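Duplicate of #3305? Posting structure anyway:
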């Protein structure tokens, strides 16, 4: 990570902002239905007040109309408000949910915790996060390529398959044969349509899949309300924050909570509370980020039925210090990283 620029504080509440773009090499190409990537490209925010610095990270996502340049500009536009002492509550009012707000919100949590000399979960009134099993993601590919990935990772307890629509039944059977003991969950990334639903769900049942994430495109998923529920369905692209959550009750059993969608930890905690009240299960997910982007999400894992925070495991290079993880058991972040 680049050195932070020099900050000059003019008053006790003023927060000085630095924002930069960073790229982290992946261990191998990461492929989903929308395309492939070889690097995690992130926007990093540093907030300094006095001699204390808090950091946050986000991953702009084109699927949601975001770009790196647009997110950097949106963050920079809050510079004056931060100089006037912006806090998390005023940030929620000033910016919509999304990647830009996520980086700022998580940086404010980190700054507050470091100023108070405690951990962020203490400020939130939560128990300290425990070591947590994370899913490990297999990239989309041919049945043979996915089977090879699965065989290499077969000892992991939870594998998540990226699927792509047509041909998914063959992919599922190939992976199950290569990893007979692992629990399998799948993520279609909106790539299915009604023509393949029956075939793909049947393959999921035959292969013992326990959860299917976002099979149909957001806004075109109404048919899910009338399907027999043999496997739990999880909304991802169909849910960002609390807005519209109630309308998904008949379509999905769970929701995927990602900080880059909710616009930060503050809204994510509120979304989980609202979702639980409506009877949804909780899946805590992530974008392809560095350990700094994953660390705040560990505060959500105590409420989760499934955790998919494997981004640090997909990297060929990461921050120092990084999140520690051995055989899918993810450890809470050290204070030097975040929170």
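Output from current build:
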């Amino acid at each position: 990570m680049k050195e932070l620029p020099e900050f000059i504080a003019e008053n006790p509440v003023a927060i000085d902002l630095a924002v930069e773009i960073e790229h982290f090499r992946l261990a191998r190409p990461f492929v989903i239905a929308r395309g492939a990537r070889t690097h995690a490209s992130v926007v990093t925010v540093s907030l300094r007040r006095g001699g204390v610095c808090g950091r946050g990270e986000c991953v702009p996502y084109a699927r949601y109309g975001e770009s790196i340049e647009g997110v950097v500009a949106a963050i920079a536009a809050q510079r004056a408000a931060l100089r006037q002492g912006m806090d998390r509550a005023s940030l929620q009012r000033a910016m919509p949910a999304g990647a830009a707000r996520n980086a700022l919100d998580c940086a404010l949590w980190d700054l507050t915790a470091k100023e108070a000399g405690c951990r962020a979960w203490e400020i939130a009134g939560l128990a300290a996060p425990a070591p947590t099993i994370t899913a490990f993601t297999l990239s989309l590919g041919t049945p043979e390529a996915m089977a090879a990935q699965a065989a290499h990772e077969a000892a992991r307890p939870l594998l998540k398959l990226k699927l792509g629509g047509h041909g998914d039944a063959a992919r599922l059977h190939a992976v199950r044969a290569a990893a007979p003991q692992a629990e399998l969950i799948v993520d279609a990334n909106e790539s299915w349509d009604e023509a393949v639903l029956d075939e793909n769900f049947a393959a999921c049942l035959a292969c013992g899949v326990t959860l299917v994430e976002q099979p149909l495109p957001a806004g075109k998923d109404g048919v899910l309300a009338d399907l027999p529920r043999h496997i739990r369905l999880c909304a991802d692209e169909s849910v960002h924050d609390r807005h519209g959550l109630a309308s998904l009750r008949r379509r999905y059993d769970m929701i995927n909570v990602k900080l880059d969608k909710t616009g930060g930890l503050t809204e994510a905690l509120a979304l989980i509370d609202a979702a639980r009240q409506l009877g949804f299960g909780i899946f805590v997910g992530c974008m392809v980020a560095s350990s700094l982007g994953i660390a705040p999400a560990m505060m959500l894992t105590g409420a989760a039925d499934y955790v998919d925070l494997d981004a640090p495991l997909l990297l060929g290079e990461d921050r120092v210090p990084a999140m520690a993880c051995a055989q899918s058991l993810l450890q809470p972040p050290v204070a030097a990283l975040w929170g």
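Confirmed duplicate; merging threads. Residues 10 and 83 are 9 Å apart (CA to CA). Confidence is low (pLDDT under 50) at residues 1-10.
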